[in-house]
């Protein structure tokens, strides 16, 4: 049995994905390379939220630093997801290098050019963790879609071979 070539990837989907990735990367750069930290105006609100959380069972060791760490992780999850989906599947593992590289660039820029900002290796760890989580989510999505597609194709072939009319599902 001869296998057909894979269909060409959607250029529209690729253009939309690249546009979203560039826009999201710009947002990350705007947040991380602004002269002052974003949380300066929200520090009191975060502290009040932590007080409420502590009163309602969140352990006291979970403080401002942990919130900041998780915010950095969360900020890079979409980045890793988009990079992993836009790369060909066999190269999507490069996301685990691209995410930390982008983060290291940001932290080095802060250290060299932004005296009001504090560059931190912990931010690189958090951002890298977010990019890896995004990569894992993209890999999971690809696996789910691939399994679904195989079931649909197998059913369509079975229907064709048995003379049944396709149901459209």
Q: What fraction of the residues are assigned to beta strands by DSSP?
A: under 5%
List the uncertain runs: none
Tell me the overall shape. elongated
The residue fraction in helices comes out at 55-70%
Number of strands: 0
Mean pLDDT value: 91
- Radius of gyration equals 22 Å
Main sheet properties: none
Enumerate how many helices there are, as a single number.
5
Task: Quickly give the structural class.
Answer: mainly alpha
**Termini, distance in Å?**
25 Å
Order of helices and strands: HHHHH
Give an overview of the whole structure.
It is a single chain. With 169 residues, the chain is an all-alpha fold. 70% of the residues lie in helices and 0% in strands. It is built from 5 helices and no strands. Helix 1 runs antiparallel to helix 3, helix 3 crosses helix 4 and helix 3 crosses helix 5. The longest helix has 41 residues. It is elongated, with a radius of gyration of 22 Å. The model has no long low-confidence stretch (mean pLDDT 91).
